[in-house]
Amino acid sequence: MIPTVLMNNPAGADMPPLEDAKVSLEELRNFTVQEIADLPVFALFRLQGAAEANLRRAQALADWLDGALAIRYRDRAQQVRASQEKDTGTVRFEDNGFTVVADLPKRVKWDQQRLGELVELIRSGWGENPAHYVKVRFEVSERAYESWPPRLKELFTPARTVETGKPSYELVHIDGRRA
């Protein structure tokens, strides 16, 4: 499955020019993940660059198309929402045999300082439990936590869980070229 031009260069052997990495992204579909991992680093470098370039082009095209759809359907979607007496949400309408599903998500933001004042008012001024009305979430800045004195860190550490995100790898050629 791996082209011979790539298999004939064991690790540490003189690296052929980058142009000799003849595996294309299209051919990569026929490889197992292990076969891809076994490719020489210069082939991975070229494939990573090609994949990222394709992704950028595809995203630019998707953004362009989304803009065209917004121009075409924005006013109609707004009219349908207005007829349903709503400012946001999903509406459906027909266009030449197609159902257009137009969604305008609601994004609510709350003034955290003001909410804190209101929670205190409910607790002290009304004598009620604010937990019946609002959810309170505590957050600790990791940068702040790292700079705390040991005694304070010791107190908070049992409430702290560290999880990892998805790892990423970028190949940068020794001469500074990026994929």
Could you describe the 3D structure shown?
- A two-stranded antiparallel ribbon has the order 1-2.
- The longest helix has 43 residues, at 41-83.
- Helices cover 46% and strands 8% of the residues.
- The two termini are 23 Å apart.
- The chain has 2 domains: 4-104, no CATH class; 112-159, no CATH class.
- It contains 7 helices and 2 strands; from the N terminus they run H-H-H-H-E-E-H-H-H.
- It has helices at 4-7, 25-28, 33-37, 41-83, 112-125, 142-147, 150-156, and strands at residues 89-95, 98-104.
- The protein has 179 residues and is mainly α.
- A hairpin with a 2-residue loop joins strand 1 and strand 2 (98-104).
Nutshell version of this structure?
By secondary structure, this protein is mostly helical. The chain has seven helices and two strands; from the N terminus they run H-H-H-H-E-E-H-H-H. The longest helix has 43 residues, at 41-83.
- Widest sheet: strand ordering: 1-2
Percentage of residues in DSSP E strands: 5-15%
Describe the biggest sheet?
Answer: 2 strands, antiparallel
Mean pLDDT: 86
Terminal Cα span: 23 Å
What kind of assembly state do the chains in view correspond to?
single chain
Low-pLDDT sequence parts: 1-16
Reconstruct the topology from this structure:
Elements (H helix, E strand, L loop, with lengths): L3 H4 L17 H4 L4 H5 L3 H43 L5 E7 L2 E7 L7 H14 L16 H6 L2 H7 L23
Antiparallel strand pairs: 1-2
Task: Give descriptors for this structure.
7 helices; 179 residues; disordered N terminus
